């Protein structure tokens, strides 16, 4: 449920306003292609998670099977990306609330939501997990209800006239912007699946990971694909894609119900997308604090970040993880119209890097443990290593395509300096630790 909670969020409920504008109904194809890449990454990390169910997850796998730099870089990048994502998600909540309270400034909602999420993450892990379970349940039930009600309207179940599927083809065709639009939409549809790697992060705190991880991975990935593809099909059948608006001013899912005129349906859907954004931010805050905790244990960041409260929560790491919320507050005050994409866009390139490191670590993991042990794994990626190579090429190509998507064109240029800075920091720490070791050896001799 934490994986579903992390994956189903603003990428689908708010980011789809951009992907629909890019690809029209062809965005359904974009979601299907993205699902294939996500599935490869999910199975890759699941194989490693059942073998090494540890805190730090893919950062530890990268350090073990690639090198120390990649283990450090992927964890720092993941923490940075999640911090930005948290800011984007609380910004999304503020955008949703503006439907009901248009006169209230966005920063008021961002502050209120941030305080509540920090307090929730300060609870014991068991209590936190219970809250997140119900957050995720609300999302799942709502998406299923949206799909069922939508197909009812499309097929004419009840007194209303059948909407049919004509909206998918009558407004410029299924691919109104051609295959180019479908490809450019991948830059954001792929991020809707980013969250499947949470399985690896939670493996260290899961009971019987050799059983729970394979079962969770198989069911979660299938559900995500069905939810995304079916919900987009329903939404675009209910409302013509070119009537979805031209900016990030609300969720297309809310707009779809508003257009068909079902009483109170749009308001109920708006409440649900608020819950969805809260759930994703809640999960990402958990992930970031645990990633920083892992980095602290390895000595890459101050030891204070591995300090645990009486309830077992790394409270200092939690406060550092809330930095994205502080950024969201500032952006909500000074750039409310651009806040979401400024935060979300920079995170996109970082997640491409994280997924690429996961795939490279898995390739090395397979070579290291040998075919005999691979055959004994409770979950295996078919046809490896070819799917990993295909996914790596696709990720690189999609990263390049962000230059041609308005709002994401600064994603890669913003990430490269960040990667250079953390790499320089890594080598500085490495050299300092080496010098300390030499001095210690001299003192002993």
Short description:
The chain has helices spanning 2-7, 10-13, 16-23, 27-51, 58-65, 68-97, 106-121, 125-155, 178-192, 198-202, 209-238, 252-260, 265-297, 315-321, 323-334, 339-374, 386-401, 411-444. By secondary structure, the chain is mainly alpha-helical.
Strand tally, please? 0
The stretches of 5 or more residues where confidence is low (pLDDT under 50) are: none
As a percent range, the share of strand residues is: under 5%
**Bulk shape:** globular
Largest sheet: none
The assigned structural class equals mainly alpha
Radius of gyration: 22 Å
- Report the end-to-end length measured between terminal Cα atoms: 55 Å
Q: Specify the number of helices.
A: 18
Mean pLDDT: 81
The portion of residues assigned to helices is over 70%
Order of helices and strands: HHHHHHHHHHHHHHHHHH
């Amino acid at each position: 449920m934490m994986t579903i909670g992390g994956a189903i969020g603003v990428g689908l409920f708010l980011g789809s306003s951009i992907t629909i504008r890019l690809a029209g109904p062809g965005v359904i194809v974009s979601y299907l292609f993205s699902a294939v890449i996500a599935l490869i990454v999910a199975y890759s990390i699941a194989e490693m998670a059942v073998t090494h169910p540890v805190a730090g997850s893919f950062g530890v796998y990268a350090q073990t099977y690639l090198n120390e730099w990649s283990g450090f870089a992927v964890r720092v990048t993941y923490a940075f990306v999640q911090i930005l994502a948290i800011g984007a998600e609380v910004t999304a909540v503020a955008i949703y609330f503006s439907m009901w309270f248009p006169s209230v400034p966005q920063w008021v909602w961002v502050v209120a939501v941030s305080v509540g999420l920090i307090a929730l993450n300060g609870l014991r892990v068991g209590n936190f997990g219970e809250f997140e379970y119900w957050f995720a349940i609300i999302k799942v039930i709502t998406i299923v209800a949206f799909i069922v009600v939508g197909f009812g309207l499309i097929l004419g179940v009840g007194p209303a006239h059948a909407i049919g599927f004509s909206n998918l083809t009558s407004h410029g065709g299924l691919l109104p912007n051609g295959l180019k639009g479908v490809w450019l939409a991948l830059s954001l549809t792929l991020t809707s699946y980013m969250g499947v790697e949470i399985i690896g992060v939670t493996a260290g705190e899961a009971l019987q990971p050799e059983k729970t991880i394979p079962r969770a991975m198989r069911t979660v990935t299938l559900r995500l694909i069905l939810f995304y593809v079916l919900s987009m099909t329903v939404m675009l059948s209910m409302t013509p894609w070119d009537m979805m608006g031209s900016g990030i001013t609300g969720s297309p899912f809310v707009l779809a119900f508003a257009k068909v005129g079902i009483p109170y349906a749009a308001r109920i859907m708006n409440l649900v997308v608020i819950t969805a954004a809260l759930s994703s931010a809640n999960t990402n805050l958990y992930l970031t604090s645990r990633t920083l905790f892992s980095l602290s244990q390895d000595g890459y960041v101050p030891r204070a970040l591995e300090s645990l409260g009486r309830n077992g929560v790394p409270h200092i790491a939690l406060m550092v993880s809330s930095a994205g919320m502080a950024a969201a507050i500032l952006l909500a005050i000074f750039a409310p119209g651009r806040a979401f994409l400024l935060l979300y866009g920079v995170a996109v390139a970082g997640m491409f890097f994280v997924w690429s490191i996961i795939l490279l670590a898995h390739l090395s993991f397979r070579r290291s443990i040998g075919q005999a042990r691979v055959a004994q794994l409770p979950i295996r990626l078919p046809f490896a290593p070819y799917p990993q190579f295909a996914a790596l090429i696709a990720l690189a190509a999609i990263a390049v395509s962000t230059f041609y998507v308005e709002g994401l064109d600064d994603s890669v240029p913003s990430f490269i300096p960040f990667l250079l800075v953390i790499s320089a920091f890594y080598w500085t720490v490495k050299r300092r630790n080496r010098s300390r070791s030499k001095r210690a050896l001299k003192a002993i001799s």
